[in-house]
Amino acid sequence: MSNRKSRAPSRVIFASTVVLFLTFLTGGAESGPPSPIAGEWHSDVFVDPNLSGNQQRQFYFTFKQIGNRLFGDVLDVYPPEKPTGRPYGLLGKLDGNNIEFEFVTQWSSGPKKELFYGEVSGDKIDIVYTHENLRPVQIVAKRVAEAGSERKE
C-alpha cells in the first residue's frame, strides 16, 4: 500500500507534464470567440502588381456569419467605386480575430481560387490577398456605415 501512495504524486506530475506539452504543441488555448463581422465592408482602392498597367481595384465584401463560419459575397469592383458585374460566393472562417476566406473565379484557363487572410480589428480588417502563385497584396477593408448608424467607412 505504501508503494501505491508514492506513485500518486508522480502520476499527477506526469499527467500535468503531458497536458502542458500538448497545450504547447497545439498553440495554447482557443483564441476566443470570433469577432462579429457580419455586414458590408469595402476594401481601400489598391494597385494589383499582378495586373499590367497599374490597374486599380477594389473589393466589396458582404459577410454573413454563423459562429466561426463565414459565407457571403465578394464583388471585384473594377474600376474602383463603380460596382458592376456579378458577385462571387465566399466561404471562410474566423478564429478569434484571425480571418480567412476564399472565392473561385472562372478564367478562360479554368477556375482560380482567390484567397484572403488577415486580422480583424474593430471596423477594420488588415488583409493579405493572393491568388494562384501570384504576388500577395496587402489591403485594408473597412466596415460600411449602416443607415442611421454612427459607424463610418
Account of the protein in words:
This protein is α+β, with helices and mostly antiparallel strands and 153 residues long. The chain folds into 2 domains: 1-30; 39-143, Avidin-like (Lipocalin, Beta Barrel), CATH 2.40.128.30. It contains 1 helix and 9 strands, in the order H-E-E-E-E-E-E-E-E-E. Strands 1-3-4-5-6-7-8-9 form an 8-stranded antiparallel beta barrel. The protein starts with a helix and ends in a 10-residue tail after the last strand. Mean pLDDT is 80; it is low at 12-30.
Jot down its keywords.
2 domains, 153 residues, 9 strands, 47% strand, 1 helix, single chain, alpha+beta, 8-stranded antiparallel β-barrel, Lipocalin
Count of helical stretches: 1
- In percent, how much strand structure appears in the residues? over 45%
Element string (H = helix, E = strand): HEEEEEEEEE
Structural class call reads: alpha+beta
Helix content: 10-25%
Write out the strand line-up for the largest beta sheet, numbering strands in chain order: 1-3-4-5-6-7-8-9
Low-confidence stretches: 12-30
E-strand count: 9
Specify the overall morphology.
Answer: globular
Overall pLDDT level: 80
The CATH topology assignment of the largest domain is: Lipocalin
Rg from C-alpha positions?
Answer: 22 Å
Fourth-tier CATH superfamily name of the largest domain: Avidin-like
Termini separation comes to 71 Å
Specify the CATH architecture of the largest domain.
Answer: Beta Barrel
> How many structural domains does the protein architecture include?
2
Biggest sheet features: 8 strands, antiparallel, barrel
